[in-house]
Amino acid sequence: MSAEIVSTGTELLLGHTLNTNAQYIAERLAALGVYCYYQTTVGDNADRIGQVIENALNRADIVITTGGLGPTMDDLTKEVVADLFGLPMEMHPDHLAKIEAFFQRRGRKMPENNKKQAMLPAGSQAIPNHLGTAPGVIVEQDDKVVILLPGPPFEMRPMFEETVIPYLAAKTKINPGVLHSRTLKVVGPGESVIENRLRDLLTVQSNPTIALLAKTAEVHVRLTARARTETEAAALMGELEAEIRQRLHPYVYGVDEESLASVVGALLNERNLKLAIAESCTGGYIAHQITNVPGSSDYFLLGVASYANSAKENVLAVDEETLRTYGAVSPETALAMARGVRRLAGSDIAAAVTGIAGPGGGTEEKPVGLVYAAFVAGDKEEVEKLQLFGDRVTIKEKTTYAVLNRLRVYLTEEARP
């Protein structure tokens, strides 16, 4: 059985909004064993939406749309689908009552145009929306199905999980476990280096398959196996995963939903160690990543975003002479920042970064992307020089990953006999 994804919204075509819905739905369809050969994005125009959905219905058994279920004049998807199937639109009083209650809970009066969201194609099945005002819709006719979902991802995803997946599983009678995926997360080498190390596997593997996905500061190696059950699929991947881990050692830091920050946090917890961070060029981004992990207060004591030199002096006790002689971006200043934040927090481990994130501020001697990262733990002190490339945000993100990975390596080495 095949499905096609149609994303509506002019904002997607203009690049104002990133289309994460299509990625999410495609991934969930693959897990269900439903093939997806086409994805289309179309603006808020009734004729073009109708043409795209009609073409999709000619190619696929199931069409899943996102967007166009709102209360405004340019929300057209339901009406277009109803017209394609020759169905009248009907008011659903129960859904109207839910929409009115949604506004009442917020102490507001429902605008008149929200009544439009309670209008559904005759004979269709509604998909409950617990987080917004737009119910989704399932329309069936002959052997074709159109599933309409709202555009906001925080509304769409729960609706897909709670209603669409059980519906598709029942309709397709495909065991959702036929396709099993596992993502190995790699930090350090780039995509081309990883491809060279895995080249023979990439060319000969058919089940499981291997795919590389380059991110800003890491690379994901995705393994996908097809089998009758998830257990069988996982067994198929076991030997291949072990081979990949051996070839990429020690750069695989985690799998699937694990983040580099969560892995570092788990290692700190295991060793009962406390961490403090001092940041200049990253402006608190390292601490942000660390504290995104639930329970990080167990091991993270303090983060200081000492952006100005005065903050480095007054908060971290970096000597004025150090700043004057070597500059804010120097191994000496980075090390002084790490020592300072460790004293301030009373932590076991401290890390500090200072650098030039750009786009201005660089010189021939100290170009944009130059970063010094210092680490202090026990009687061990070190400073690492990084020369990174990219825009300001990319350099901040790459610096953050470099620091977290250095902490991971240190904590892993400490665990060895």
From TrEMBL:
Q: Which domain of life is it from?
A: Bacteria
A Pfam family hit: CinA_KH
Q: Entry's SMART domains?
A: MoCF_biosynth
- Domain named MoaB/Mog is located at 4-171
Fetch the SUPFAM superfamilies from UniProt: CinA-like, Molybdenum cofactor biosynthesis proteins
The record's listing under InterPro entries reads: CinA (IPR050101), CinA-like_C (IPR036653), CinA_C (IPR008136), CinA_KH (IPR041424), Competence-induced_CinA (IPR008135), MoaB/Mog-like_dom_sf (IPR036425), MoaB/Mog_dom (IPR001453)
The family note in this entry says: Belongs to the CinA family.
Query: Known NCBIfam families for this protein?
Result: cinA_nterm, molyb_syn, PncC_domain, PRK00549.1
This protein is called what? Putative competence-damage inducible protein
Q: Which organism is it from?
A: Heliobacterium mobile
